[in-house]
Hints:
The chain is an alpha+beta fold.
Amino acid sequence: xxxxxxxxxxxxxxxxxxxxxxxxxxxxxxxxxxxxxxxxxxxxxxxxxxxxxxxxxxxxxxxxxxxxxxxxxxxxxxxxxxxxxxxxxxxxxxxxxxxxxxxxxxxxxxxxxxxxxxxxxxxxxxxxxxxxxxxxxxxxxxxxxxxxxxxxxxxxxxxxxxxxxxxxxxxxxxxxxxxxxxxxxxxxxxxxxxxxxxxxxxxxxxxxxxxxxxxxxxxxxxxxxxxxxxxxxxxxxxxxxxxxxxxxxxxxxxxxxxxxxxxxxxxxxxxxxxxxxxxxxxxxxxxxxxxxxxxxxxxxxxxxxxxxxxxxxxxxxxxxxxxxxxxxxxxxxxxxxxxxxxxxxxxxxxxxxxxxxxxxxxxxxxxxxxxxxxxxxxxxxxxxxxxxxxxxxxxxxxxxxxxxxxxxxxxxxxxxxxxxxxxxxxxxxxxxxxxxxxxxxxxxxxxxxxxxxxxxxxxxxxxxxxxxxxxxxxxxxxxxxxxxxxxxxxxxxxxxxxxxxxx
Length: 503
């Protein structure tokens, strides 16, 4: 661990070759910034424990000990405990296990656990004690100091002090009763008057704040009687939203501002509020005064106003958002329909390469049906020797780095046949996530034509060069554009290049 971290490391307790229980501490040594090794120090744990734990004053039935991070008793006053596992000593008692969990989570605290044994009527029993612990960080580990007490020891020192306090406080209590009784009547009257004035002031300020918020709120607010479901108050925002004025709202009920198809939902909301629940109705239709439909989110809760249980509804107009969502869905449907019928294969994949969409042409091109394509990744349709190259390009594109957006590559069909394709790709957003959009064209026939042309050109070139008759091509200004070895020989040149330099 020293070699790996170059930090001070402290071991757990162990039996040294010198014959005593000890811990080892390795301190790293550096020359400048270069790590050169470590100095190892062996500490006899009994001496260390006696030096520091000997100063802790404890009663006869109390005990103090030191515990390592791994639960080994580094030092203990009880003979035979040092160097052993705390859990083994207590035979994995549930209270000990719970204490060990607490020691790992907290730096200090209290608990109830067992530690030492006691023989009662010939049977060995564990004694439950109150535990106080404090964790000391030491480089790569930590030690925990633990002190245990019997409950009797804790209260023994307090008994005499408690008795004296009882006498003192009894006397003071009698004196204070008499004194406060004399002031009680006067102070009661003064306090009641002050409280009344303060309550009136607070109530007035609260009403003013509520009125200001109510009148200036951007959201529409309607307050209805929970029992009769009639509107009591309406703010300017809701009047503008639904087209009614404040007087007209007082003549309406909750069910008057909703279409018939949504009334069942509204009644369920009121039943939930009657049980003390807060509710949120998202995208609920409301009827304006002119009969048009307005879509709103309604956040409702219950409150007591003027001594009556009321429903407070906060209305947020989401009509435009609804329209935008509808337009977006229609747009996506149109795009999807267009993609389905494009002559090119279309493939959409997420950042992990998982296919999210493929059109019919893509299925025909690869030989897979749609469900099979959705269970594949582009990696599984790439020849093994080309996988690394295309994976690097794919990762760079998703990171926004500049890579070719159009190139030729190969795909492995379902039947194992490898076909060449021309791929045009870009990044896009699909269902709210960044994805790769690829258009693929099968260029097998074009590749076959190119190969045929290439072979034809090679044959022509071979016939041209092997012809024993001199052949050459010249431009109108006499420049030799092409010639064969036979022509170079006729003119006495050593090579075609030498003749090509002439005119």
